[in-house]
């Protein structure tokens, strides 16, 4: 099968997201300028550079009560900071609950019953029990082709690691069951890993 996206795929569901999988989930916490916390998952998320450490996530779609994109983007543009929380198997239902389209000004931590903790380097809350959390300062927002598509870039200025996820000096995703997004409504839990050595290393 071959198709051009501009012509449509002719399938019952769009295969695009299923092709680019698995994708890590950035469970992004932000705070509005009036002090309201927000929490939402984004599966177009990844690391962008390691020195200095930087991350990116894409926000697509819009909300009727936001002029530009979603609450997360609006909050980041107001405050210049955000936190990326790693999703574990034990927290996947709360992560999913926080994806609900709630009115602006709603605290998704409270709505999804997620315990929050204060960040150290930025004025923002983080998921208290997350295996890892990355405190970030905004570096740039890039407008993509499409009415409501944006990419947010941030520099990591603080890293929280849960002690039980460190094994022999390494952060071990198999210890907590890292949750990844597939296509459609499908997800995966990472339990098995293997190591490859690059030629010449």
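Sequence proposed for the structure above (201 residues):
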């Amino acid at each position: 099968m071959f198709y051009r996206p501009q012509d449509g795929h002719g399938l019952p569901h769009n295969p695009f997201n299923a092709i680019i999988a698995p994708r890590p989930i950035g469970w992004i916490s932000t705070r509005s300028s009036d002090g309201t916390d927000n929490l939402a998952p984004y599966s177009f998320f990844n690391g962008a550079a390691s020195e200095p450490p930087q991350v990116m996530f894409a926000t697509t779609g819009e909300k009727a009560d936001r002029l530009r994109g979603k609450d997360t983007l609006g909050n980041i543009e107001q405050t210049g900071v955000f936190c990326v929380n790693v999703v574990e198997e034990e927290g996947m239902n709360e992560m999913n609950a926080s994806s609900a389209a709630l009115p602006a000004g709603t605290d998704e931590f409270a709505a999804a019953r997620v315990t929050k903790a204060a960040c150290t380097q930025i004025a923002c809350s983080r998921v208290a029990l997350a295996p890892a959390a990355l405190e970030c300062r905004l570096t740039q927002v890039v407008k993509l082709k499409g009415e409501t598509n944006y990419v947010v870039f941030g520099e990591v200025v603080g890293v929280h690691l849960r002690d039980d996820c460190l094994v022999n000096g390494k952060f071990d995703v198999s210890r907590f069951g890292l949750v990844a997004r597939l296509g459609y409504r499908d997800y995966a839990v990472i339990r098995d890993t293997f190591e490859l050595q690059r030629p010449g290393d």
